[in-house]
Amino acid sequence: MKQEHIVKTVEPGSIAAELGIEPGDKLISVNEKVIEDVFDYHFYVNDEELTLLIQKPDGEEWELEIEKDYEEDLGLTFTQGLMDEYRSCRNKCMFCFIDQMPKGMRETLYFKDDDSRLSFLQGNYITLTNMSDHDVERIVKYHLEPINISFHTTNPELRCRMLHNRFAGEALKKVDRLYEGGILMNGQIVLCKGINDGEELERSIRDLSKYLPLLQSVSVVPVGLTKYREGLFPLLPFTKEDAKEVLDIIEKWQRQFYEEFGLHFIHAGDEWYLLAERELPEEERYDGYLQLENGVGMLRLLEEEFAEAMEELPGDDRCVEVSMACGVAAYDHLEKLVKGLQEKYPNVAVYLYSIQNEFFGEKITVSGLITGQDLKKQLDGKPLGTRLLLPCNMLRDGEEVFLDDVTLSELKETLQVEIDVVKSSGQDLVNAILRTDVGEEK
Questions:
Q1: Could you give the C-alpha distances from 39 to 46, 134, 206, 347, in angstroms and in order?
Q2: Count of other CB atoms within 10 angstroms of residue 209
Q3: CB 39 within 8 A of CB 147
């Protein structure tokens, strides 16, 4: 069924606003071309000369001629972000995190997307199994990049088994077409113990390297295992020794790729270094932090930004008393940063709390999966100072709600403390700690 493209918002001062386009209006065509979805829209509105056909709610049609700069945005968003239905995942991956969530959470958390348009727009990773030939042709035609791909393995038979989809191995051939079309890509491998590690990981790295330099980076991250795995494939957690072996493989290939291509290409998620109790790689080995969203280099970048921000500060005797909460994985690194800050600011007290993930299980150690109820339970009655600092990735994007639907105001009410949500940079963290009042920096 053809989708109707209803305008949701019009940016003030934009081209669309100047032309009188309003929320509720319907976009019929651009340059007499019917818009299939957001891929078409982004491609056609890039032109310097446009003819838009808009239908008002009363049925009146406006034909609007526009002259603008190339790639200048019109300032419109639509009621459906993709201007089409979202495509759900057809796989039944043995490691899928959504299958490991408890019942009773909000419905949107159970939606599994595998949509190539979200890969381009939001950086989501796709398996290619849900991508048609038509999708591939349009990506190449419109040169939409980068496209982020969940490889997991390049062994076709193993990929079919891991994704529980008989077409998963064949889908890898679409990478060749993207490569031939000159499309930039990034990849990820979710590593499962005894399944796609060891020799299989070596094979995957070797096979994927043939797509360099268009395949810019591949991250290797450990499978996340919650306590809700009854009836699912019996996966085992990685040990410290396992992590060392994984890092040895990755670092061996990094040296080889850097010598040949000037890129490290294959990257280990921060969790491997924490589990192996090894020092994080130096900044140069992250190739510009291409895989931050996958937890690759987040801690190193935080440390570098924090150190840079501290270099600019003279230090003083201000008195500050705040608290911070984080996942188990980041605790030691944050503690080191706080101690460095206190060398310049001896009267700054920071109560740092490592939150055990009782909601999903103790094997989940990242801050982004901490729930409001765990914060309530583990911080209630603790010294919190005048403010509690929480990383922004604990909250739903753009909202003040945790994964379990506990709101920021509910947490504030329970703990009886002001809460500052801190952005992800080291500079933001320094600013948040040193403020003597909300909104005021000394």
A1: 11, 12, 32, 54
A2: 17
A3: no
Q: In whole angstroms, give the CA distance from residue 360 to residue 346.
A: 37
Contact yes or no for 351/385 (Cβ under 8 A): yes
Residue 226 in contact with residue 97, Cβ under 8 Å? yes
Residues 278-324: tens digit of each pLDDT: 999 999 999 999 999 888 999 999 999 999 999 989 999 999 999 99
| Whole-structure pTM value | 0.82
pLDDT tens figures, 121-150: 555 788 899 888 988 998 898 888 899 999
Closest to 359 measured CA to CA, from 226, 248, 252: 226
Buried b (16+ CB within 10 A) or exposed e, 90-110: ebebbbbbebbbeeeeeeeee
Peptide bond into 146 cis (omega under 30): yes
What's the one-letter identity of residue 166? R
Task: Tokens for 76, please give them.
Answer: 């419109």
Give the integer Cα–Cα distance in Å for 298 and 292.
6
DSSP assignment letter at 100: G
- Please name which of 284, 283, 295, 159 lies closest in space to residue 220, comparing C-alpha atoms: 295
Q: State the chain's mean pLDDT as an integer.
A: 90
CB-count exposure of residue 28 (10 Å: 0-12, 13-18, 19+): middle
Eight-class DSSP state of 289 = T
Q: Is 170 exposed, middle or buried (0-12, 13-18, 19+ CB in 10 A)?
A: middle
The set of residues, in sequence order, having a beta carbon less than 8 Å from that of 248 and lying 6+ positions away, is none
Report residue 352 as tokens.
């740092």
Residue 349 CA to residue 41 CA, distance in Å, equals 52
Rounded CA gap, 321 and 335, in Å? 15
The H-or-E segment that residue 205 falls in is: helix 199-208
Highest mean pLDDT among 115-124, 258-267, 395-404, 429-438: 258-267
Tell whether the model's pLDDT for residue 439 goes beyond 70: no
State the CB neighbour count (10 A cutoff) for residue 211. Answer: 18
Gap between the terminal Cα atoms of the chain: 58
Which helix (H) or strand (E) covers residue 93, if one does? none
- Scanning 313-357, the segments in alpha helix (DSSP H) are 331-344
147 by Cβ neighbours in 10 Å (0-12 / 13-18 / 19+) ranks as buried
